[in-house]
Amino acid sequence: MELRIREILESKDIKVSSLAETVGITRANMSNIVNGKSTPSLETLEKIANALGVDI
């Protein structure tokens, strides 16, 4: 999952900090999700997908 989020961020030129702010979590937490160091809750995953305009 982490690779896919990173790919989408790069393709849409979105920064981790910007996505974190949109989703309502810390930049550190979002960075951990993007890097595969933590797994988001389903609710957070849905917010990430909505913010990126993709399906889960």
From TrEMBL:
- Extract the SUPFAM superfamilies matched here: lambda repressor-like DNA-binding domains
Offer an example of a GO molecular function term for this protein. Answer: DNA binding
Q: What is the designated name of this protein?
A: XRE family transcriptional regulator
Domain called HTH cro/C1-type: residue spans? 5-56
Q: Which Gene3D superfamilies match?
A: lambda repressor-like DNA-binding domains (1.10.260.40)
Q: Which residues form a coiled coil?
A: none
Q: Which InterPro entries match?
A: Cro/C1-type_HTH, Lambda_DNA-bd_dom_sf
Q: Indicate the transmembrane segments per the record.
A: none
Under the heading Pfam families, the entry gives:
HTH_26
Which PROSITE patterns does this chain map to?
HTH_CROC1
SMART domains (alphabetical) = HTH_XRE
Give the species.
Answer: Bacteroides fragilis
